[in-house]
Amino acid sequence: MPSKEDILGGLPAEKPLPVTLNILPIGGRPIFPGIFTPLMINAAEDINVIEDSMNGDGYVGIVMLKEDKDNPTSVDLHNVGTVARIIKKINLPDGGMNVFVSTLERFKIRKILNTQNPIAATVEYLEDKEDNAFEVKALTRALISEMKEISENNPMFSEDMRLNMVNIDQPGKIADFIVSILNIDKSEQQKILEMQNVRQRMEQVLVYIKKEQEIFRVQKKIQAELNEKVEKNQREYFLREELKSIQEELGISGSSKESEYQKFKDKLDSFKLEGEAKETAYGELSKFQMLDPHDSEYNLSRNYLDILTSLPWNDVPVEDYSLDGASRILDADHYGLDDVKKRIVEYLSVRLLKHDGKGSVLILVGPPGVGKTSVGRSIANAMNKKFYRFSVGGEHDEGKIKGYRRTYIGSMPGQIIQGLKITKSKSPVFMIDEVDKMNASAQGDPSAALLEVLDPEQNATFRDTYLDVPFDLSNVFFILTANTLDTIPGPLLDRAEIIELSGYIDQEKIEIAKKYIVPKNLEKNGLKKNQVKYTKQALALIATEYAREAGMRNYEKCIDKINRKIVTEQVQAFESKGKTGAEKIAAGFAKKTFSVDLPEVRKYLGKAVFDESQIKTASVPGTAIGLAWTSMGGDTLLLESIAFKTDKGGLQLTGQMGDVMKESAQIAMNWVKQHAISEGIKDSKWFEEYTIHLHIPEGATPKDGPSAGITMATTFMSLLTGKKIKANVAMTGELSLTGQVLPIGGLREKTVAAKRNKIKTIFIPKANERDLADIPEHVKKGIKFIPVSHVMEVIDNVF
After folding, report:
1. Are residues 619 and 765 in the same domain?
2. Which of 153, 305, 634, 645 could form a disulfide with 753 if both were Cys (CB 3.0 to 4.6 A apart)?
């Protein structure tokens, strides 16, 4: 680079400062007067400004932008800048320009002559104002003194900077020079540039110097502490090395770190890893060997290797089971569920034939308490495989599935890798519960993470975020459970075989109680087998009056409550006779037997939760009974409607209906309105004067779906004609605008709910007639099914 003397040599004398200037906008920091500096010019517009100024009087106004931006206009500029004389320009190979300027005076923009590039303006030059020469002189000495301290402690200050600072003879220029080399915000520098009063300018610069000195003091303190810590670590390192040598001389065994290193190495050698997994594992092992046990990363590396070497890399999947054995285990563990067992056996048959379990995913769908989790455990037992279960209900973090990065404190692998570590098998049965209750959030979407886990095309190279090496999941048998399919993403359903578990009717509950629940609960409460005998009538009463839901959880709670109360009564009776102590009480209990019939059930369980009054009946005109399917199983819905006179008519809906159900209600209303007018039941004026209000009781429970369409139409026709529907009649079916009855789902669950509600006749869509074959005979027994294809077939027969 040419020296200042080379550049200045031979230049003509300076001209008077012009009133009109071309403006050069600059980003970064403002440039102060009295400075000789190079400027790098790259933008074509800025190069034009320099060329135009050099072709003129050689002066340019340098003004800082309020915010750095491309193609600035006059509104983007600060109001005060510095006039500079262009000394020399050097064109650069890349098309840019290096310009040497000598800055002269402050100026204030008076008027913008051209708002776009090249910006031109008329300016007013600002002279320094000195109001107290004595104070200014004192401030000058203070500034130079303080800056000397900073320059001595900061190697960034060159000798030229120190000499320039001492040789400047104008107080204002000293303040300008110092503030230009201090590391302060550019907005603060601009404020100094805009100050005409020299004393105020120097006082403000002195404040910045004090702040800089404080920063230097803190930096020195931190540096000293760091150096002390490094020296301490080095000293400890040498002492540990000496200790190691002493231990070797004395024949004392090596450190725990060495034994752990050898343990990890032996395991890795036995795995015969290949590719990326081998490279990552041995790389981490080398890093572990180099780390000091007191290092913060030591435990992170140790935990990583511990998990990596605990995985079943060498396990060879084997399908070792028979269909007869699998069937016996399923029958022993569960009563009924014949369709479910049949489909599971078919599934296992295919696995045996292929000698391959890759891509096996089942989804068990059904209401709570029907045995989804226990079916999964039975499948694992039937296949002689390890079983691992975890729930994703309410999860909103994909890290639950795929793990967390090791950079986070307390990070760990996801549940998939943890399950493999616990089961120590490469082909276990994994049960993932409540997949319909996952939610996406800012932490990711767990259902999206499950797609990779369950996809047979991807899971052979599954990569947990924590481990960050591929692991083969293709031999894992995944069983998912859900209460409903509605909230499960479609791509997730596509990867699985869906098996539906329906709710139980009363007869099934009685058999399940006799074979499974009562024996298990007697043991739980310290009673012997057959010590408490339940009559069939007692078990039936529990099903009808205390536990009517689709599953068996509440039923089991009732049995548990009865057994607890029997035990409590007898213990209190023994103690009242003076027989105390666990051994005496147990001996007395062993000789007793108990019978539970209807009076004992009512005595121990108290007032019935369900009674005959809660059975839904359409006893007045404007009501009808529909069948619905919910995440809790099948249910009966009593639809109620009334009409009242208003000014505008219309339809009012209440009872927590979803959008689909609201549309069904509007379709039913429009069909009924058209039919009633055409048949002369009501005229159009009536519908303009009366509002029809449709309500579905249990208003706090959300309801949705199209299957209540014909029930709504029947309700409206009952209201308009004043006729009641027949007793013990229910219906289900979607309604079209032309009155067609369209098919629905969940017919088995709806039939179970109807039987529980003492329904004798059910109108179903004709298209669902084929589904009757899938419903067990003991469920259909006592119910008449009437297939219909048009809503008029219902209306003609239901009243």
Report:
1. yes
2. 634
